[in-house]
Amino acid sequence: MSAKPVDLQEVDYMEVLVLVDNVMDILSSVPECVTSEIPNHIAAGAKELGGGCLCCGAWGLSLAISTVSHDVKRTMLFDTGPEAYALERNAKRLGFDFGKVECIAASHGHFDHTAGLPKALELITEANGGNQVPVHVNPGMFYKRAAQDSPDSSVLPLEDVPAPTILQSAGGNVVNDPESRLVLDGTAYISGEIPRITEYEKGLPTQVRIGDDGEWMPDPLQMDERYLAVNVKDLGMIVFSSCSHAGIINVLSDARDNSDPIPLYGVMGGLHLSGPHFEPLIERTVKDIEQFGLQRLVVGHCTGWRAFQSLVNAYGDAVILEAVGHTHHFGKMH
Known about the structure:
Blueprint: E1 13-21, E2 34-35, H1 37-43, E3 61-69, E4 72-78, H2 84-93, E5 101-105, H3 111-114, H4 117-127, E6 133-137, E7 145-147, E8 156-157, H5 164-169, E9 172-176, E10 181-183, E11 188-190, E12 207-210, E13 216-218, E14 228-232, E15 236-241, H6 248-259, E16 264-270, H7 282-289, E17 296-300, H8 305-315, E18 319-321, E19 327-331
Parallel strand pairs: 4-5, 5-6, 6-9, 15-16, 16-17, 17-18
Antiparallel strand pairs: 1-3, 1-19, 2-19, 3-4, 7-8, 7-12, 10-11, 11-14, 12-13, 14-15
């Protein structure tokens, strides 16, 4: 039986360390709910400030999500970035302990969120004594995909998502299932397929994939995308939408409809509102977000500066940049 966000166990506190993002910012002031990159480096042992101690930006996303409930801390990875180097470099400089990672969830089948999976599994199993790590995926992630500007133009293939056999060999216990589920002893929720209800969120119009006949076919909707959610005490539901190819309004609508009576508190991730196909959607998307009553919007990766600016104009200090190396705190640590 599929789980729903409302089935989640409430946690006392959650912190999210941004291991990989293409956005960097070490100078801007941050609210009390954020620890910025430099303090994190100092806490990890940095003795001087220089390029060698800083994180690197990379096109992609990886979040280390830790929940605390009844003094028990649980940690998982949501995505692993576009390649091994950025993930390993940033984690080392931030003092991140891979041995604490209990599972990995991959949001969807694009290389900028999954190509770091083998390295992540290697680092986790090295640190945990060789124990296998659950890796949550779904079958739709493993299509061969490409970008094609028009039906009669050539395609630009995307790097393959590491196959389940590769993940298994790297130390993963692959959970390849299209349905929703609870992980971390019921404190985190991985969605199932996201219903597409808006008329304007139409996915990736230039994406194609190899069909059963071996030919390229349209694949705009990215039906393999999943979101993640955590219910934090006295706040409500925090929704993680790694790239929002399904459309952030569709994502939040599904989370709200399946979380009731738990309110939505915030969203974190990439909203995919950058580029000529998506920037025309900014105004309507920003307006439609209002219905969810969000108290915090932590956005980066594929959101784009135009959408970020529009969100700030609409929601002010509720909008926070998802910069690499920052830790975002939700709730109170006892």
